[in-house]
Design a protein that fits this description.
By secondary structure, the chain is of the alpha+beta class. The chain is 29% helix and 42% strand. The chain has five helices and eight strands, in the order H-E-E-E-H-E-E-H-H-H-E-E-E. The longest helix has 10 residues. The chain has a six-stranded antiparallel barrel, surrounded by four helices. The chain has one domain: Electron Transport, Fmn-binding Protein, Chain A (Pnp Oxidase, Chain A, Roll), CATH 2.30.110.10.
Length: 144
């Protein structure tokens, strides 16, 4: 798959699974994707959540996107960076899939909202594509 095809597949799924580490133990949870493109894979979480603390302590992570209809799974590993961009936080909170954030943004002081939502980006991740047909084939790294 090309990078463009990978981004298209990622963007066609609303959720992905994120693996982090806490005290040497793996942690995995479902997350909502905001977008994936040449600038990176972008998502958000709350600053009060364990996942935020885990990423800050160790920004190495792996994401798993599963496109059930086609039977394709894409795993992307790399380093997460926090994005401190209020314009991006506004853009995310105004997105149709983020109505719950828009309500939070409008019901509290703007500074509180900007401090509570934490945005992360994985740039230059390494992707692997898995299907049942390629289950036993060697992995091929695709630089994003």
């Amino acid at each position: 798959m090309t990078k463009e095809q990978l981004f298209e597949l990622m963007n066609s799924t609303l959720t992905f699974h994120l693996a982090t580490v806490e005290n040497g133990e793996p942690r995995v949870r479902g997350m909502m994707l905001y977008k994936a493109d040449e600038t990176g894979i972008i998502f958000h979480t709350g600053g009060f959540k364990d996942v935020y603390k885990q990423i800050i302590a160790n920004p190495k992570a792996q994401m798993c996107f599963n496109e059930v209809k086609s039977g394709i799974q894409v795993r992307v590993r790399g380093v997460l960076e926090e994005v401190m961009d209020t314009d991006l936080k506004d853009e995310i909170s105004n997105h149709p899939t983020r109505a719950f954030l828009k309500k939070l943004r409008e019901s509290s002081p703007l500074e509180d909202f900007y401090n509570s939502i934490r945005v992360f980006r994985m740039k230059n991740g390494i992707a692997n594509v898995w299907t049942f047909d390629t289950n036993f084939a060697p992995k091929v790294d695709i630089q994003l």
